[in-house]
Design a protein that fits this description.
This protein has nine helices and ten strands. With 311 residues, it is of the alpha/beta class. The strands form two sheets. It has an eight-stranded parallel beta sheet, covered by helices on one side. It is globular.
């Protein structure tokens, strides 16, 4: 088995540093949305989202990632800043997000909170309210003001690779075995250059290959198999594989099922597939994993970390 040992790197956020490498950090997802594909509406009420976030911290989450706009396939995310095109406005995004951020930090002042947004206005509001990290699924490509905003705020930044917008994903052609890694590498390189040009220091940046974001089903397997090559970009990697549809489709095909829809798969089946993919991502060099179910991820990450240490 080929293992990818991670070197220790300090990730500077707004007020602190997170050491990446010695062990995998677990980022718990808090979706404050009515329409996310797996848990939309469950935590739309602020008090439920706060309770969910605090439960994740108790289960071992190192970071909480709060998101108030769904980026599921077919959504209008990335198509504008709200209004006639149907994308969520920054005002509505902040109305959902900021009370949850406030509630979590009131209960746990030392919590490390990331905000999952591609809008500079929301990033600014959240960081001013105490968020440490901005997690931009577009890699600074959907809002021209985001890079300079994060530079000014001096927060941590996750730059994720996205191919097109969610409204385009279902009609995009596959990148293929030989095309997916170069596309992700080249476009992450462009995001990294934009961040540095804006004045964001390198030690504030983590890169995310963006599994499922504009990659057709098998493209994600090809990308995961070569994920370690992205470490050549010089920054630690974050992998978000939890409940991705390509995993459930693969599981359905293995079991000979006629349907491959996420809805047809049992919840436990989806989680098992996600844990397997998460473990593979860690062994291929990911320093942070983004998950829906923290406790299971913590156990899997501990196993993978022990294997890396033994190797």
């Amino acid at each position: 088995m080929e293992l990818t040992k991670r070197r220790g790197v300090a990730w500077r956020t707004r007020t602190t540093e997170l050491m990446l490498g010695p062990r995998t950090l677990v980022m718990g997802i808090v979706n404050i949305t009515p329409d996310s594909f797996s848990d939309g509406g469950l935590f739309l009420e602020a008090h439920r989202a706060v309770e969910h976030g605090l439960r994740m911290l108790d289960e071992g989450a190192d970071i909480l990632d709060l998101g108030a706009e769904s980026t599921r396939p077919g959504s209008n995310a990335g198509s504008g800043q709200g209004g006639a095109n149907g994308a969520l406005s920054a005002k509505e995004e902040q109305r959902r997000l900021l009370p949850v951020l406030d509630g979590i930090l009131r209960a746990r002042p030392d919590a490390i909170v990331s905000v999952d947004t591609y809008k500079a206005a929301t990033a600014r509001a959240a960081v001013m309210a105490g968020a440490e990290i901005v997690n931009d699924v577009s890699g600074f490509s959907w809002d021209a003001a985001m890079a300079e905003t994060c530079a000014e705020l001096q927060c941590g930044a996750v730059l994720m690779h996205t191919r097109g917008t969610p409204g385009e994903w279902r009609t995009q052609a596959p990148l293929g075995r030989e095309g997916v890694l170069p596309a992700v590498r080249d476009e992450l390189t462009e995001s990294l250059r934009a961040a540095l040009k804006a004045g964001i220091s390198l030690d504030r940046i983590v890169l995310d290959p963006g599994y499922g974001f504009g990659k057709r089903f098998d493209d994600n397997y090809y990308l995961l198999a070569r994920q370690r090559e992205l470490l050549a970009l010089g920054r630690p990697l974050l992998a978000g594989l939890s409940r991705k549809s390509f995993l459930t489709r693969g599981l359905a095909e293995l079991e000979g099922r006629v349907t491959s829809t996420v809805a047809a798969m049992a919840h436990e089946d989806r989680e098992m597939a996600g844990i397997a993919a998460l473990t593979a991502a860690i062994l291929a060099g990911a320093s942070v994993v983004r998950v829906h179910e923290v406790r299971k991820a913590v156990v899997a990450a501990q196993f993978a970390d022990s294997l890396l240490a033994a190797g």
